[in-house]
Every structure is written in structure tokens, then in C-alpha cells.
User: Fold these one by one.
Assistant:
Number 1:
Amino acid sequence: MKAVQAGRFGAPDVLVPVELANPEPGPGQVVIDVTHASVGLIDAYLRQGLFKDVPGLARPPYVPGLEVAGTVRALGEGVTSLAVGEHVVALSTDGTGGYASVYVGDQARVISTEGHGIDPALAVAVVPNAIMAHAALTGAVRMAAGESVLVHGALGAFAAAFPGIARQLGASRVVGTVRSSRMAAAAATKLPYDAVVDSAELPGALGGETFDVIVDPVGGLVREQSLDLLAPFGRLLLVGNASGDWSHRLDGNRVWQANATVTGFNAGGYIPARPEAVAPGAAAALQAVAAGLADVEVELLPLEQAAMAHERMENHTARGRLVLTP
Ligand SMILES: NC(=O)c1ccc[n+]([C@@H]2O[C@H](COP(=O)([O-])OP(=O)(O)OC[C@H]3O[C@@H](n4cnc5c(N)ncnc54)[C@H](OP(=O)(O)O)[C@@H]3O)[C@@H](O)[C@H]2O)c1
């Protein structure tokens, strides 16, 4: 099969096209002919070696990529819920295997998109992230209908899955924040935000509005500011660190005095521990995509250009979701 491999930790140029043997399915596994593989910031973190000491995560040489779309090529022993040729999307929890023409994964994390009429490029860009957003909003912060939600870095790959899922869960209002340079893109977005404000103008841009749930994949300054943007008994959901500010610390005294809850959600640990979260998340994700609640911009690139895709993601020149085609 065609694949891209990270031969060592380092800059994007460690990603090199290679030829590898096709994987065979073990019991409970599904092999997929990949048509689309998405690129996320987590792929860059893993490639950089940022998490090299975390047990269970990728070590070179490895094939990066945790989200694929394609058709079922072969089924392992005991897999009865899928058929060869069926259109699917899959997510891996160890962040490997996606940048290839053939992918093997556990049936528990392979979702049929058959009959939903979803473009596979949009499916891979949105469905895995929307499953995670559903698990985070329902399981981690127990969002209730009628609650308001603020999403930082609102057009980012993971963030973009939240407004559609929040709508489906009955959010009363969903607001996003983006950097000044993204305000024009925010004005054009089809994502179901009631409003998107400039994060450089927080908190003033929100005119005193506070939120029951704040989703933060950005960290740093906006995380700090979020404690003042929570409604009474509000929950701040930490899901990432796109700002790159790894040294930021939250003040526990402020959390205490605000009656706030700060919750972390990390799909890599959450989904294996709560596999039952995948099915309702997938149902909500497919509904959100079909209802046009998750229309993100997708840019296709040949698999061989994985290194360039990482470079563009890291220097913030990607306009929408970057998706590789083997
Ligand atoms: N918890 C989980 O299970 C999970 C799942 C998926 C991803 N993640 C994490 O979520 C984070 C985002 O990943 P992604 O794949 O969505 O990346 P992405 O597509 O690059 O999105 C990141 C977003 O954050 C914005 N941003 C970056 N620096 C910022 C700053 N200093 N201030 C304000 N906004 C800033 C970016 O804005 P620009 O467009 O202007 O660059 C972009 O919109 C990563 O830390 C990733 O590891 C976590």
C-alpha cells in the first residue's frame, strides 16, 4: 500500500512517502480502502515528539493520521455489523495508520456512512471530530438543553464540530471566538454560530454575556479570560492547546471563588474507556452533517504532500480542513 511514514520525530520533512505491506484484519478489526485521510494539529504534536513519553502513543517509524474515510476492504473474525464495500469513516485513538491507502482499525471505531449521502471528504473532516464533540458535551460537561455555549478558535478543525452538536443537544445560543485575522472567514462560515467575535477584543466584545459551557481548544490567554466569561456554575471544557502556550496555568482560587468547574476531555483516553460513547456520538454526528450543521471548508491534497500539509497547518495558512487523498 501507499503510505506516509514519520521515520523520526522532528519537522514536517520527516514525513516521507513509502510502500508498505497491506494490513490484514485481526479478530474484531476492519480493513478499509482509504479515499480520504484528514490532517489535524494532534498529528503535528505527535510528529514533533511532544508526547513521546506518553505510553501507548506513536513512536517512529509510524504512519500518522487518526481519521479516515473509505470503503470496507476486509472484515476480521467476529465482525458482522459491516459489509465489504460499505462506505465508512474511522477514528484511531493512538493517532496512527491514517496516512495510507489501506487502514486497519477496531470495529468499535468504524462508522458506516452508508445511506447518508455524505461526501467522504466532508465525512472525514467532520464525523470523527463531531463524535468527540458529542462525547465531550454529553459525557464530560453534561450539557443540558437550553444552555449557552462559547467555542474558542471557532473555525478550527475540532472546534468546528461543536456548534452543530451543541445545536442538536438544544443549546439556547452558540457563540464563537476567532483571531482578528479570521473575522472575514467567520463572517462567511456556514457553521451554526449565532455570532462570532474577535478574541483580541475579549471580554468587551461579548458585552457582558456569560456562558454555561465554554469549549477551549486554544489555551493561554483565552483560557485565562474564560473564567470571567462563565455563567454561575458554568463549566470550562479544556480540549486542546492550539495557542502553543504550554506553560499557562489556571488559578485554582479563581475557580473556587467563581463556583466554576474546569473539565478536561481527551478522546485518546476517553473513547477507549467509554466505548459506548461512540454510537450515540456517531448518530448525532451523521445527523449534524446531513442537516448542514457542520459545513466546514475542505481542501484536498495528494497523500504524498503530507509534509506540506503539516507545514501549512503549523504556519496557519490552511483555510479549512486539510484532507489527504491516497
Ligand atoms: N481533546 C481531544 O480529544 C481533541 C481532539 C482533536 C483535537 N484536539 C486538540 O485541539 C486543538 C486544536 O486542534 P485542531 O486540529 O482543531 O487544530 P486547528 O484546525 O489548527 O485549529 C486550531 C484553531 O485555534 C486557533 N488558534 C491558534 N492559536 C491561537 C491563539 N493564540 N489564539 C486564538 N486562537 C488560536 C486557530 O486559529 P487560526 O485559524 O487563526 O490559526 C485555529 O482556528 C489541538 O490542541 C488538538 O490537539 C483535541
Note: The two ends are 9 Å apart (CA to CA).
Number 2:
Amino acid sequence: MERTLVLIKPDGLQRGLVGEIVGRFERKGLKLIGLRMLDVSRALAERHYQVHAGKHFYPGLVDFITAGPVAAVALEGPDAIATVRRMVGSTMPNEAEPGTIRGDLGISGLRNLIHASDAVETAASELAMWFEAEDLVDYGRAIDSWIVAEEPARS
Ligand SMILES: Nc1ncnc2c1ncn2[C@@H]1O[C@H](COP(=O)(O)OP(=O)(O)OP(=O)(O)O)[C@@H](O)[C@H]1O
Ligand SMILES: [Mg+2]
């Protein structure tokens, strides 16, 4: 089971798309384990996008993610990191496939609505950046046996 971080960026929140986006993950079968809404400090934005520091789009990226409140969402599920990235789609909404969040709901460059962790290490460090450990809720779902199955054995 994996855990991953999603941020609904200021454009998604301003457009009233938090429910639509979180709903897609819920319907997929991913389990919500953390929800938080906040105004992002410059320090947190810079830490979150540290990997892009020095790139030409970095200042605009930090300005954008601090321009209004964001919703932080922690999700859990089998192969959750790659599954969520596939549901999010390519970075640029004009290139993202229909059926993905960016492909269906976005149209232009930086206005790509959502961030999702891209690997096991970044998911762990980003979850720790955006959530206190005690704010990630560990609970069972009665319906899980209908959603989460073991991989079929290969012969
Ligand atoms: N070439 C670029 N020009 C302008 N903005 C860019 C470019 N590449 C990335 N960005 C912006 O920086 C963000 C982080 O880039 P990254 O390569 O990590 O894409 P991503 O993983 O799809 O998006 P995110 O990290 O926000 O989930 C992107 O969401 C996008 O807004
Ligand atoms: Mg990224």
C-alpha cells in the first residue's frame, strides 16, 4: 500500500474544482487519509518546489502556488503514486490526455490545477512537509474487500 500527496493549486480551488478532483480519487477507490486547506507561505512553496530552484519558471511557480489558498490531500491505495500521476495527466494541460484531470479541466501552462508526488521518496518527504504525522488518519473501510484485491497469481 502506498501513500501520496495531492495539492489542488490556487486555480483549482478558485474555480470550485476541489470536490470534482477529490471525487475522482474517491471514485477510483483511493482512500482519503488527510485533508487540509491553507494559505501557502513562501518558505513552504520554495521547499516544495526546491527541485526546480534556478529554472526559468521557478519564480512564477512560487508566485502562483502562494497566490491563494490550496487544498492538500493525502491518499492511500495500491500503487497510489503512479495511479494518481496517471489520473493527473501530463504537466501541460494542452498536452494532457482527455480523461485525465489536467486534460479534462485545464487548458494552459501554469494553470494545471494540481500537483501529485512523483516517486516513493518524494511522496514521503512531501507528505511530511504538508501534514503533521498525527493528521494522517489510519482507518479501515468495510468496503475495501470489494475494492482492493490481491493481484491474481500468474501461472
Ligand atoms: N517548461 C515549463 N515552463 C513553465 N512551467 C513549467 C515548466 N515545466 C514545469 N512547469 C511548472 O512547474 C510545475 C512543476 O513541474 P514538474 O516538472 O514537477 O511537473 P509536474 O510534476 O507535472 O507538476 P507538479 O510538480 O506541479 O505536480 C508544473 O506543474 C508546471 O506548473
Ligand atoms: Mg512535479
Note: The chain has one domain: 2-136.
